[in-house]
Write a structure and sequence with these properties.
With 248 residues, the chain is mainly α. Helices cover 60% and strands 0% of the residues. The chain contains nine helices and no strands. It has helices spanning 17-24, 26-36, 47-67, 80-101, 106-132, 139-160, 165-176, 199-215, 236-243. Helix 5 crosses helix 9 (236-243) and helix 6 (139-160) runs antiparallel to helix 7 (165-176). The longest helix has 27 residues, at 106-132.
Length: 248
């Protein structure tokens, strides 16, 4: 149970899963179960934790809704920012596949959530939002953002499908056709992983700008003067648009 004690009828601490499933849904329960502990470990069954897992599905839904605003494109001339997030998608795919091959669903459950919460939504999506809307960017640059956004969403959905089969299938059919996601193959790693070496630099810089604005009591939309490190110059246009940076 939630106290870490073995559940038994005599103790009266047995948790009936049916009301939990009816209240929070099968996908939510499955994602919590898969992501609670690694394979072979005991875990505490807490309704509070099950309820909090719904935040991840809400995040997935909201990001998918944002991406649904843009059309899919078959190919595009990708920017350094796009190649960076696709490199991270390749790393995610490989880690998840290793977990599935070992029947350890904890790995894909936690890795996909980390990718969605800690990297894709706060960093990449925010970096390319202006470009996706075509604000200050060419049509070619805009389509590159559309391509990468949809590639990442497809990857996230495919990697989560065995764990959360219902929401992933619904979103997949809504965005990519009537064919079920469960008839699809896992994503194939097809991008070079080299750009991923800059992930730490990118996230660190974004955090530094956010903190600087907070310290100066600026809103996230307010302009700010800050130097972009030399190693991040290939990402400059997206970073400037994201943070409203005023270059010296």
């Amino acid at each position: 149970d939630w106290k870490g004690e073995r559940m038994s009828k005599s103790k009266g601490n047995v948790i009936d899963p049916i009301p939990i499933l009816e209240k929070y849904g099968a996908d939510n329960f499955r994602l919590w179960n898969a992501g609670e502990v690694s394979l072979g470990s005991d875990f505490r069954c807490s309704e509070e934790k099950i309820a909090s897992t719904s935040k991840s599905l809400t995040k997935l839904w909201n990001v998918a809704r944002f991406i649904s605003s843009f059309p899919t494109v078959k190919k595009a001339r990708l920017s350094k920012t796009d190649l960076w997030i696709l490199a991270e998608l390749v790393r995610l795919t490989r880690e998840c596949m290793e977990g599935y091959e070992e029947l350890n669903f904890f790995v894909p459950a936690t890795k996909v959530k980390q990718f969605l919460w800690d990297l894709f939504a706060p960093h990449y999506v925010e970096m390319v939002k202006a470009r996706a809307y075509g604000r200050g960017f060419s049509k070619e640059e805009q389509e590159a953002a559309w391509f990468a956004l949809h590639e990442c969403m497809k990857g996230i959905l495919l990697l989560l499908a065995p764990i959360t089969p219902f929401i992933t299938d619904y979103v997949w059919r809504s965005l990519y056709g009537k064919k079920s996601i469960h008839a699809e193959k896992f994503p194939e790693p097809k991008w070079k992983t080299g750009p991923a070496k800059l992930t730490g630099k990118i996230t660190e810089f974004n955090s530094r700008v956010w903190n600087a604005k907070k310290e100066r009591r600026l809103s996230l939309k307010d302009p700010i003067e800050i130097e972009i490190p030399a190693e991040l110059r290939p990402f400059e246009k997206d970073l400037v648009a994201m943070h409203n940076i005023k270059l010296a």
